[in-house]
Design a protein that fits this description.
globular; 11 helices; about 450 residues
Length: about 450
C-alpha cells in the first residue's frame, strides 16, 4: 500500500467526548455525555442522524422481547415518548424515519451536543495507547478534532480499526446479507389485508400494525409465498427476488404506505468491500422494480402503488466487530448469562439471514441475557469505547445484539462511561448501570 503525507487543519476547540457516527448508538452516546454536563461532538458521514433507523428505513426497530419496557436506555424511552406524543411513532418501536431525524437533532440541541455532518474518518493521531485526534474529510477539507475520550459508533468499527484495534469480520469469510429497503405509497392497505385473509394468510396477533412476509421454505402453506413462486415460474421474478420478502404497515407512518424489508442480496456476501456493496445496491433497485411491477398486477390493493423512496444507505446487519476485553458468544446467550458489569439486557433471538432464508433461535418467555460493559472496551486503546452493532461479539451472538434498542442502550452506557473518566478501562460497568437507572433506565 502506498503512503502519503496528510495535511490537515487542526481545530482549536477540544471536546470532552467525541462520538464518531450519529446513528442509533451514536446519538444516545453523545446525548448521554451531554446530559452529564460534558462537551460532546458527533461527527457524522451522512447529512442526517439516525443511521439504520432513518437513512436505512429500518422499520420497525424490532423489540428486545422483554415485556414491560422499550429499552435499557432512558434516552430511547424519551425519544419514543416524544415520537408517539406527536403521532410520529407508535406501539413502542415504530417511528417515522423523516420525523425521527428532526427529533434526534432536537435531542442533541437539548443536551448541548454539537453535530458536524459530511465528516468521514480519514486517519487517527495516537500517542502510545491514547487517541489524541481524529482527522476527518469535510466539504471544507481535512480537519483534526481533539477530545479526551472517543466513542466509535460507526457500525463498522472504523475508528477502532484505524486506531490499530483487533477486529473480526463475518463468519468463514461471509457477512450476513445486506438489504436496500424501500417504501411504497398509494397502497389500499385495507384491501391488501382483506386479500391476504381471503387467501388464507394467518397473521400473528392483531392485524394492525400489520406484517406479512414470505420465505421459500413456507411455499407449501403460505399463500403470499405461493404467489411469488408463480412470479418466478412465469419469469417475472428471479429466484432471489422472492426468497425473502417482508412488509410492514403502521398507521402513524402513512395511511397508504407499506415498508419493504427487502430485497435481500443473499448472493453478495461481503459487507466490507466497496465493490460488493455497490453491486448489492445496483441489484436491489432492479429487484425492487420487478417486485413492484408484479405486485401491481397480481396482488389486489397494489393497483395504484408506487415506490415512494429507497433507503439512502444500505442496511448492513454485520461487518467488522471489535475483538475486545470480553467477547460475547452464543454460549453466553444460550446460558442466559448475567454479568456484574451488565449495561444491556435482551431476549431477542439469534437471527442469522443466509441463503436458506433465516436461522432463528428464540428464548422462552421470561428468559433474557445480559451484555457486559467490557464488550465495548478495546484492548489496544485506553480512551476509546466501541458501541452499537460492532461491539465485541462472535458472528452468531452479534446477530442477536445488533437490533436498534440494544444499540441505543449500549450507546447510552458508553456516553455515561466516557463522562466518568476518559480512561474508560478504569470505569466500573456496574456503576455505569447504576447511573443509567438513576436517569430512568429499567433493568430486570
Amino acid at each position: 500500500m502506498k503512503q502519503s503525507v496528510i495535511s490537515y487543519v487542526p481545530m482549536a476547540e477540544r471536546y470532552d467526548v467525541l462520538v464518531l457516527g450519529g446513528g442509533t448508538a451514536g446519538v444516545m452516546a453523545a446525548c448521554a455525555a451531554g446530559r452529564e454536563g460534558k462537551k460532546a461532538l458527533i461527527l457524522e458521514r451522512e447529512y442526517a442522524l439516525g443511521g439504520t433507523a432513518t437513512l436505512s428505513l429500518t422499520i420497525p426497530r424490532m423489540t428486545n422481547h422483554i415485556p414491560g419496557f422499550v429499552s435499557n436506555s432512558s434516552l430511547a424511552e424519551e425519544l419514543q415518548q416524544t415520537l408517539e406524543a406527536k403521532k410520529e411513532g407508535g406501539d413502542t418501536y415504530f417511528c417515522d424515519p423523516q420525523m425521527q431525524k428532526v427529533e434526534l437533532e432536537a435531542m442533541c440541541a437539548q443536551y448541548g451536543v454539537a453535530i458536524l455532518y459530511g465528516a468521514e474518518l480519514v486517519s487517527v493521531v495516537k500517542t502510545e495507547k491514547q487517541i489524541d485526534e481524529v482527522i476527518v474529510s469535510t466539504r471544507g477539507g481535512l480537519r483534526g478534532y481533539r477530545a479526551d475520550c472517543f466513542v466509535d459508533c460507526t457500525g463498522d468499527a472504523c475508528l477502532a480499526r484505524r486506531s490499530g484495534c483487533k477486529t473480526e469480520c463475518g463468519y468463514e469469510n461471509e457477512n450476513q446479507p445486506m438489504t436496500l429497503r424501500f417504501c411504497v405509497g398509494g397502497v389500499d392497505v385495507k384491501k391488501v389485508e382483506r386479500t391476504l385473509l381471503d387467501w388464507g394468510y394467518r397473521f400473528g396477533g392483531d392485524h394492525f400494525p400489520m406484517e406479512f412476509y414470505s420465505l421459500w421454505r413456507e411455499e407449501a402453506f403460505n399463500p403470499f409465498t405461493k404467489l411469488l413462486r408463480q412470479g418466478v415460474n412465469e419469469g417475472r421474478l428471479t429466484e432471489r427476488d422472492g426468497s425473502y420478502v417482508q412488509v410492514y404497515y403502521h398507521q402513524t407512518l402513512g395511511k397508504d404506505t407499506l415498508w419493504f424489508n427487502c430485497p435481500e442480496a443473499g448472493n453478495i456476501t461481503s459487507a466490507a468491500d466497496a465493490e460488493s456493496v455497490t453491486e448489492m445496491i445496483l441489484y436491489s433497485r432492479k429487484s425492487a422494480m420487478r417486485i413492484m411491477s408484479f405486485l401491481k398486477e397480481r396482488f389486489p390493493g397494489f393497483e395504484e402503488a408506487y415506490i415512494q423512496s429507497f433507503a439512502d444507505i444500505p442496511g448492513i446487519r454485520e461487518s467488522y466487530r471489535l475483538d475486545g476485553e470480553y467477547i460475547m458468544t452464543e454460549k453466553d446467550i444460550e446460558a442466559r448469562c448475567r454479568f456484574e458489569d451488565a449495561v444491556a439486557q435482551s431476549a431477542y433471538p439469534i437471527d442469522i439471514h443466509n441463503e436458506k432464508n433465516l436461522v432463528l433461535i428464540h428464548m422462552d418467555p421470561g428468559e433474557y441475557y445480559e451484555i457486559p460493559y467490557r464488550c465495548m472496551l478495546p484492548r489496544e486503546v485506553d480512551n476509546l469505547l466501541v458501541a452499537g452493532r460492532c461491539v465485541s461479539a462472535t458472528f452468531a451472538a452479534q446477530s442477536s445484539m445488533r437490533i436498534q434498542l440494544t444499540c441505543m442502550a449500549l450507546g447510552e452506557a458508553a456516553g455515561i462511561a466516557a463522562s466518568m473518566s476518559p480512561q474508560v478501562k478504569t470505569v466500573d460497568g456496574a456503576q455505569v448501570r447504576r447511573r443509567m437507572i438513576e436517569h430512568g433506565a429499567k433493568f430486570l
